[in-house]
Amino acid sequence: MSDKSTIPFGPQHPVLPEPIHLKLVVEDEKVVEAYPSFGFVHRGLEMLVQKKDFNQMVYVVDHICGICSAMHGQAYCQAVEELIGIDVPERAKYLRVVWAELHRIHSHLLWFGLLADAFGFENLFMLSWRIREKIMDILEATAGNRVIISVNIVGGVRRDIDTEQAKWLLDELKEVEEGLKELEKIVKNNYTIKQRTVGIGVLSKEDAYMFGAVGPTLRGSGVPIDMRTTGYAAYGNLDFEPVVETDGDTYARTIVRVREMFQSIDLVRQALNKMPEGEINVKVKPNLPAGEVITRVEQPRGEVFYYIKSSGGKNLDRLRIRTPTFANLASLLHMLPGSTLADVPVLVLTIDPCISCTER
Amino acid sequence: MLKNVVSNLTHKPVTRKYPFEKREPFEKARGHIENDIDKCILCGICQRVCPSNCIQVNRKEGTWAFQPFECIICGVCVESCPTKSLTMAKEYRPISNEKYEIVQKKEVQNPPNKDKKEGA
């Protein structure tokens, strides 16, 4: 007699901030099969593009994700700007980098807290969210809101960071960096973290590439693909290298994210130092030309893909978004079989799932 | 880690006791929008640019209606207001048990034929 049994994981589960359902077939303690199902938070945002003006749509795509909203707005604006064929002022490009990198730091800190919570290290969860609060304050002080900052518009950005505020921002970042150094020490030395992450969910370099993984999931397996190296916004003028770890397990992905936070701090500093003076946005004509455009932007979770199609007029015809979580699900389903049931929460969190993004 | 534990034992809580102790809002914070109906000319630009359709302007009756719980506080209406009657306040709107609508009324001085001319 086979002793296989089926265990539902989610849509409501303590480790899941958002609803995803996994049907896990287990044999004793081992997971042998996993089937996902989602669609619990589908909102039909892509359809709204046919009803809303392309300028209004920026605020709609900003609300796709509650964590990386600035990057969604950025990707959409870059696509529309390419379609119209306008050049964004240099200063706006640098400001976009600053806000995008601040979002990356707070997203990784949020994820790290959730991971710590998933394996029962509640103290560390609080610690990383305390550091994150500083970033939220910076965002609120510079852009006006904590998470959905809505700074990107077609043609540039809406808010400027003046010299005085930039100085204050850098001072605050120094404190954040000190906090992150503490965090890094904990990640590198703590027994609990190592026991729960080293060697769990190993994804080989070939598999990661074949399953189309993106972002830290891919880079944790040793593939140096980072969309920022394509040089969109001001990334072409900044000095950085994609963070790569070769082990391919949960620990390697954690280290990638921790190192990326330091890289982001460095990028914010570079961007603020190199930022030229000048305009922050240009006026845009109310009608769009016909055409289709593809943009790719590196989000905290990986590469996001935007496709827009227009046949003239005020509205776009079609908007298609492929979010990083959707790309990473295939590698998650590859990692799950063979793991123990107790490791499932850690494995689900290791790809940094953002279900609301995926279902839009 | 140990340093953290010791310092956490000795210093006061990092969090605020919210309803009793409120943080000063930041200078650029977007809290809620306010309309000064005396300056408002009921042009309806705010209604047209709003991404969440939370503003309705009725020129015939002279009303400016606003659903605060549908507003996403993006601030586009404030930026596009020609008379600067719309302003962004720094404080968040307090929570409420019921959804309500804010309707501001203005005496319409324009004769109805002028309305027609502008609409044409």
Question: How would you describe this structure to a colleague?
Answer:
The complex is a heterodimer of chains A (360) and B (120). By secondary structure, chain A is α+β, with helices and mostly antiparallel strands. Chain A has one domain (4-359): Cytochrome-c3 Hydrogenase, chain B (Orthogonal Bundle). Helices cover 46% and strands 15% of the residues of chain A. Chain A has helices at 57-62, 69-84, 90-118, 122-143, 163-189, 191-197, 205-210, 215-219, 250-274, 324-335, 344-350, 355-359, and strands spanning 4-9, 21-27, 30-37, 152-153, 156-157, 288-299, 302-313, 318-322. In chain A, a hairpin with a 2-residue loop joins strand 2 and strand 3 (30-37). The longest helix of chain A has 29 residues, at 90-118. The model of chain A has no long low-confidence stretch (mean pLDDT 88). By secondary structure, chain B is of the alpha+beta class. Chain B has a domain at 27-107: 2-Layer Sandwich (Alpha-Beta Plaits). Helices cover 22% and strands 17% of the residues of chain B. Chain B has helices at residues 2-10, 45-49, 76-80, 112-119, and strands spanning 32-35, 55-58, 63-66, 86-89, 102-105. Chain B has a three-stranded antiparallel β-sheet with strand order 2-3-5, with no helix packed on it. Chain B has a two-stranded antiparallel ribbon with strand order 1-4. In chain B, a hairpin with a 4-residue loop joins strand 2 and strand 3. The relative contact order of chain B is 0.22. Residues 116-120 of chain B have low confidence and may be disordered.
